[in-house]
Write a structure and sequence with these properties.
Two copies of one chain form a homodimer. By secondary structure, chain A is α/β, with parallel strands linked by helices. Chain A is 36% helix and 27% strand. In chain A, α1 packs across α8. The longest helix of chain A is centred in the last third of the chain and has 17 residues.
């Protein structure tokens, strides 16, 4: 069983407006809402790939009830969210129909008490006992210690469960020091962690800080993986236009599923880039286009980098 | 028992941001939410004035549950909302801390079925049997006939219950033709109803269309009342700066409470202007400043207008 952890789950609300005009009043014709937070998004993609996934983290209030209802209706997901007294946060994405741009309003999340954090850790340890891999995803809600992810990484390692960490800032810095198996920073997160804007140098530095493998997602330049088995770069075929929301979460799902399926690194990266690109192409934010995904699996280019022999093309499918 | 009708109740959410930047991402530190929709706001002010008020209309979904929970916690309010299968709408007010301006995002509301509308009408007729007065407030949710308020006005008149209508557009036009006792349009609503931007002419025209009394709220110029007993203008003392959200609803509460307390027109207008002004002055949108209200009661100026003798000052307190 795969496990994803979303400590700051969200009810993601999308409003479409013809044009967003500050200080004006807008009547919203089209409203959509769905369970959100990075770990939930990852879980949904994993479920779409045919994996059974247990989802944990915190949920509370009326918004939390809506999130749980949505999870319950998704095939392949098991709800192991821990109830809290505060209300699950909302995120509001206002999509401007004229420019296509999105204005994002993200609530901070509920205040988590020490007792709630203790209850979560107990649930987490129970889930680790039967987990094949775990992904720790997203921001921390108010009240949690900044070293929360470091603690969860250590618990996973102690239980012998491969652990992927996808967060940012100080929680990422602390978490990396606890030696996770895999981190998947984007360019900004990687630069913030290491102080370097050079991906080759920064990925090396991140490994030096404790991450066993670093897969950096570099937008249109694809992904750069620095692993104990070598370095690879994976790029999508040509430029892709669309909504990048959720592309990183799809990449995490690709990497995690590849890990438990014992795929080679080139195969894992191909899957991650194909899923990520198919997410950008999908009309609904955070969904992936299944047909585009299957087609992209044959077109992602993976190149081995570094080593004595320099770059060499690797067959992946 | 006073009754207020809010067919399109809302969960009013307020986000404070240092500055609203379109197409950027904003982390919301301060979130507040409360039951909304004009009739609910009117009821809350009436309750604060010491009246017992029954609140009806529609509520549904997780947002509707939060609205009902909020109502249940408010002293003096009786919840007679009719459950619907759709979800009560949200309104999101984004307050820009730099300019103080508000950007408003208003969901349209749930689709009301014919059966739900029939269930509401039954509840409404039962409430009329013991109502001292009724206020019909705000927009119509999707699915209701545009003549919905006209029908509710007629039912109130048939039951001998004084009825105040506070809405806009075509529902106001149809509702006025059903001869309500009182309408309280603002300048824009009055102009849209009558085609005239001259308040004196427009209020006369609105009476000609069927409203027994018209009280026009004219912002900083106070209120103009055209009644079977004469015409009055009521103005606050000097210019008032603040948030006008809910000022109109407070005015409706002033007029409705004045009606059932058998106050004179000058007294009712004094109360309406004082409440409305005290609402603009309150720090929280839609609340009124009780101390300012009491003080304003002695300082609102009411002037009798028109007639053979022209304007004459009227003592009101």
């Amino acid at each position: 069983m795969l496990v994803t952890v979303t400590l700051n789950t969200a009810l993601d609300i999308t409003y479409r407006v013809p044009r967003l005009v500050p200080h004006a009043s807008h009547r919203i014709g089209e409203v959509s809402e769905r369970p959100g937070g990075k770990g939930l998004n990852v879980a949904r993609v994993l479920a779409a790939l045919g994996h059974r996934v247990t989802v944990t983290g915190f949920a509370g209030g009326a918004t939390g009830a809506v999130v749980r209802e949505g999870l319950g209706a998704t095939e392949g997901l098991v709800d192991a969210l821990v109830p809290v007294s505060g209300a699950t946060r909302r995120t509001v994405a206002v999509v401007d129909g004229t420019t296509g741009d999105t204005t994002q309003l993200n609530e901070a999340g509920p205040q988590i008490t020490a007792a709630e954090w203790a209850a979560f850790q107990e649930t987490y340890r129970e889930l680790l006992a039967s987990a094949s891999a775990v992904a720790l995803c997203g921001s921390l809600p108010p009240g949690l210690p900044v070293g929360a992810y470091a603690l969860l990484v250590r618990a996973a390692r102690a239980a012998g469960v491969p652990v992927l960490l996808d967060t940012s800032g100080e929680p990422l810095r602390r978490g990396v020091a606890a030696r996770p198996d895999l981190i998947k920073p984007n360019a900004d997160e990687l630069a913030e962690l290491t102080g370097s804007h050079d991906p080759a140098r920064a990925t090396r530095d991140a490994r030096g800080r404790g991450a066993r493998t670093v897969v950096a997602s570099l937008g249109t330049e694809g992904m750069l993986a620095v692993t104990p088995e070598g370095r690879w770069r994976a790029v999508p075929p040509g430029r892709v236009d669309g909504n990048p929301t959720g592309a990183g979460d799809s990449a995490v799902a690709g990497l995690l599923s590849g890990l438990v399926e014992n795929l080679t690194w080139p195969q894992r990266l191909t899957r991650a880039v194909a899923l990520s690109t198919a997410t950008v192409l999908a009309p609904a934010a955070g969904e992936f286009d299944a047909a585009a995904y299957r087609e992209l699996l044959t077109r992602v280019e993976v190149t081995r980098e570094g080593g004595a022999g320099g770059a060499a093309r690797t067959a992946t499918s």
